[in-house]
Amino acid sequence: MLARRHLEVCVFSHLAAELRSGDVAVAGSDSYADLGAQLMSWEECAPLAAQFCEQAGIPTEAGELVAFYRRELDTTAARVDGGYPANTDLVLEEGRPVLKRRRGADRRPSALGLEQAIHQRLPERSLLDILTRAAYLTGWYSHLGPASGSDPKIRGDALGRYVLTAYAYGANLGAAEVARHMRGQVSAHELYTAGKVHKCSADVINAFTMLDVAGVWGDGQIVAVDGSQVDTWENNLLAESHIRYGGYGGLAMRFVSDSYIALFSHFVPCGAWEAVYIIDGLLRNDSDVQPDTIHADTQGQSLPVFGLAALLGFELLPRIRNWHDLNFYRPSPATLYQHIDSLFGDNAIDWELIERHWIDLLRTSISIREGRVSSVTLLRWLGNHSHKNRLYRAFRELGRVIRTITLLRFLSEPGLREKITAITNKAEAFHGYAEWLRQRVLGDERSPSVLAGHRLPSVKASKTPIGGHPRPLGLDLL
What range(s) does the Tn3 transposase DDE domain occupy (predicted)? Predict the structure, then answer.
């Protein structure tokens, strides 16, 4: 009457789904701990609520918040409906929105001439020479050093050691691999940094933003987040094979500013949903450049992420694949539109749900901002559908409001579409640059290694090219 193995499969499948959504917790666990126990209490959050909401640009009271977003959705939908006759790019075919392709602008002859002149005048520089000069000019190496804090204890030239350390971790070779190629000139222990590379990177970013050329590209308030697959060794805790990328490796998540500099980088498994790491990367950015607008692709968005980003004061404007298949939500079931009514169907926002759980939303957002709970852990739970998790349902409902507003703007504002395409192309161009730079560092049959025959200050480099060894992770810091 009962197949035991079938019952076990059902029980453990259900348990796995409940653990992923946070409906079941494991006592003493990190990844699957009880979320409610990690969040700050309302007594702790109440004194911080006013300042937090002011920074995010939203009301503090639940009723005012609902009225604020309802008015925003009403205004945006009415504007798009009224402007539909003049919107020559948007066509509704059987109730589905279709945007006509716009022809991109050609590069001007002056831009092509400038590019050619730069290539002619820009001399070729060694990567290690660039690192050494940047260290001298910005002083990023001040974050490194022995645990005792005494630089004189470093054998030989301290600056040379710091440059080699940045190279080891910037190229993701690691201390042990670089030390092996240095043939006894330096040990892996001497190159260990204990996670201080991001502090050094913040100094370089701050110095870069002071350059005149950085202001020509952008003001740093916009960032594009994208992941790029990187081949790795199979014997790696973060590496895995994934059908989407057709190879074995990991995912380099990069946060690229509109001024063409990476504010933060993170290495994640290929199977991870990129949207989970978006908020975490922005909160862990230690530089003076603090963007408030996020651009990503389809992997960088979900309904809970839209909601959480809005509460934390970030505007999420992703480039979504198959966006015309997504649901639009009405402000109320009785709201009708003359031209774009077919976009919405029978979907309407449940404002009562948002108002009822506003305290839970606020507690969660403040706890993330104060570092009491990781946004990665939270979004892993919120990224899995749950009928019982009230926090998931509240974030999802708020995300429906924000995403509907974003999609309506996307349909009606050609300038916004062009901006989204431009900044996401910058992130993809940075991936190409990092890949080119990584090949220059590692070397292969077509490109020589930059370490071969190179000498650091007071440190003799190995003459053995790195190119003969398996390719490690991507070059992020450099």
Answer: 129-443
Give the C-alpha distances (Å, rounded to integers) separating 210 from 109, 205, 207, 215. 29, 9, 5, 8
Q: SS3 string of 203-262?
A: HHHHHHHCCHHHHHHCCCCEEEEEEEEEECCCCCCCCEEECCCCEEEEEEEEEEECCCCE
Confidence of residue 386 (pLDDT cuts 50, 70, 90): low
The range of the structural domain enclosing residue 57 comes to: 42-95+215-430
* Dist CA 229 CA 42 (whole Å): 41
Task: Quote the tokens at residue 125.
Answer: 């520089």
Task: In whole angstroms, give the CA distance from residue 354 to residue 63.
Answer: 9
What's the mean pLDDT when you consider all of the chain?
A: 81
Question: Is residue 239 situated within a structural domain?
Answer: yes
Checking if the pLDDT of 303 tops 60, the result is: yes
With beta carbons less than 8 A apart as the criterion, state whether 294 and 226 touch. Answer: no
User: What is the DSSP-derived secondary structure letter of residue 22?
Assistant: T
pLDDT at 458 over 50: no
Measured CA distances, 362 to 44, 47, 311 (Å): 12, 12, 8
39: which 2 tokens?
């969040």
Q: What is the pLDDT of residues 397-438, one digit of tens each?
A: 999 999 999 999 999 999 999 899 889 888 888 888 888 877
Instruction: With beta carbons less than 8 A apart as the criterion, state whether 440 and 139 touch.
Output: no
Angle ∠(56,60,65) on CA atoms, nearest 5: 85
63, with CB counted inside 10 A (0-12, 13-18, 19+), is exposed
Can you give the length of the chain in residues?
A: 478
In a domain, 415, yes or no: yes
Residue 373 within any structural domain of the chain:
yes
Structural contact between residues 158 and 176, judged by C-beta atoms closer than 8 angstroms? no
Instruction: Give CA–CA dist 433/289, Å, rounded.
Output: 21
Residue 274 lies in a domain: yes
DSSP state of 122: -
pTM of the model: 0.81
**Is pLDDT larger for residue 362 or for residue 248?**
362
Q: What's the pLDDT at 306?
A: 93
Give residue 469's identity as a one-letter amino acid code: H
